[in-house]
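Issue 218. Parser rejects a valid record. Input:
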Amino acid sequence: MSESVSFGYEQVAPEEKTERVGAVFSSVARKYDVMNDAMSGGMHRLWKDRFVRRVKPQQGEAILDMAGGTGDIAFRLAAAGAEVTVADINQDMLDVGIERAMQRGIDGLVWSCQNAEELAFPSRTFDAYTIAFGIRNVTRIDKALTEAHRVLKFGGRFFCLEFSTTEWPGFREAYDAYSHKLVPRIGKVIAGDEDSYRYLIESIRRFPSMPEFEAMIRAAGFAQTRVEPIMGGLVAIHSGWKV
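Output the parser choked on:
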């Protein structure tokens, strides 16, 4: 195999990863938010609130929320008056987000099926680019970061919320045991899908460390990069500016 990428603990062809990740999210779309609550004890809501506070969305500015299918981040951004485009490669996830927006009476969001590696938007379109718990599922992360840089205006900001590896002694071992042994079982009970949640946990373990990912963001052209660890690095907010 001339080129391979990680799908959890497996090495597969890039095209196979894209296809298999798509199948994972189509499978879990309807139970995705319920599972987030179950897996994190509701903590993901606090992490997302903190993330959006760091983004500081402004009235009328254009924000691209990539991999934002179910709308969790977009709803928060729109509440501040931002003009949000929600993009996701998976239409099933977008359909869930559209349904949730209708139920909440949230209008004005643009929903777009997009591949993060090959965005259809013109260069220098957005004031900010956000991606929460999605970048690790992209087949070629470097291409997605380059595209993020391309579609941002000069002075635009990039924000990414993603799982990492906690550096707290003791907690790291406990979380590893919980995530590998219990999360797939929770996925089986709540979502009827053990394998998809096993992949999602493995994908966290294969994701670059905080310093490594920050270096990738800089390599894509971003300046003034920053990493903000949460819970010792269990989750991290990465940011950078297009200058």
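Fixed in the parser; the record now loads. The chain has one domain: 5-241.
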